[in-house]
Amino acid sequence: MNRPIRIALTKGRLEKDTVGLFEKLGFDCTAIHEKGRKLILPVPDANLEVVLAKANDVITYVEHGVCDMGVVGKDTIMEMKGKFFELVDLGFGRCKFALATKKGYDFYSGYGVKTIATKYPNVARSFFEKKGMDTEIIKIEGSVELAPLLELADGIVDIVETGTTLKENGLEVIEDVAPISARLIVNTVSLKLRRTEIDRLITLIEENL
Ligand code: PRP
Question: Angle at CA 113, nearest 5°, toward 160 and 172?
Fold first, then answer.
């Protein structure tokens, strides 16, 4: 038998949702449930090997071909780009990128250059470039909602899921930027070399979404 197909999963919620999907497909995920601090886990009956990584690293490993496949959010794909095939929208991990400001703030008025805080500078830049709008983008590492409250930024481009974080901090969405969900990505060479196995797995996944 060939070496297992190696699939990198984004640690946390997408990992849990993917394991849920694998179990629906009848795969034995015991090793993942009992992983402790282990980062590479076998799914023996499916000839799969699961690698647990941070979202950005899932893309890096798949791009470099050390993982054949990966499960990662569209948010990370949009920010990092990269050379791989994005083959399946897995439907879970649904949320959106949105532009938000302090409640009632008239973002589009005035001529001054607006300042945007975000964890996703490439996503924010391309959103405003498409509008032909000059902005200053400031990269923030987390809790981006703080930036308008502290008057660092006029607005934020961030992930909105339930909207609770915005609401509890007196902010509101003024425009949707893009829908987000988990995607199955595949290394370009792996797709050629392991086509039959990858196609079989994708068909099985698509039948069970
Ligand atoms: C994300 C996002 C928002 C929040 C949105 O942050 O950046 O802050 O979740 O979720 P909601 O609409 O359901 O309230 P995350 O929890 O990943 O933390 P971080 O921003 O500190 O990285």
Answer: 25
